[in-house]
Design a protein that fits this description.
Elements: E1 2-5, E2 18-20, H1 23-30, E3 36-38, H2 41-72, E4 76-81, E5 88-93, H3 95-104, E6 120-122, E7 124-133, E8 136-146
Parallel strand pairs: 4-8
Antiparallel strand pairs: 1-2, 1-3, 5-6, 7-8
Length: 148
Amino acid sequence: MEVILREDIDNLGSRGEVVKVAPGYARNFLLPKRLAVQATESNKKIVEQERQAHLRKEAKAQGEAEDLGKLMSHVTITISQKAGENDQLFGSVTSKDIADGLAAQNYTIDRRKIQLDEPIKQLGEFKVPVRLHKDVTVEITVVVAKEA
């Protein structure tokens, strides 16, 4: 069965693409969740218009993310935590702590966009990537200091 995708789907295709899928997959998953529509001539025209609008919106969002990335490239956040001997923290610095630090500097960033593989458990200076857009990633500096 041929369907036109309305969203990007991993291992299948991207938005606006006509793909061939099993009838059950289309009937039971793609069509009810509105991830795809049947490939008819009228649907192709509608989806093409949606795709053009999505491309314009995506270009605008990427431009805004690049501008924000330029502003954030020199941002340094200092987080004070209690620490014991050997510079070991009594807890950890998570993406939520970093998001709160950014909010204190008037940058509203969702904590899920902060790509911290594992929480920081040492004192020191760390480079943390922040994914502002699927094509725009900026690194910020996080300094973990010992609380007085």
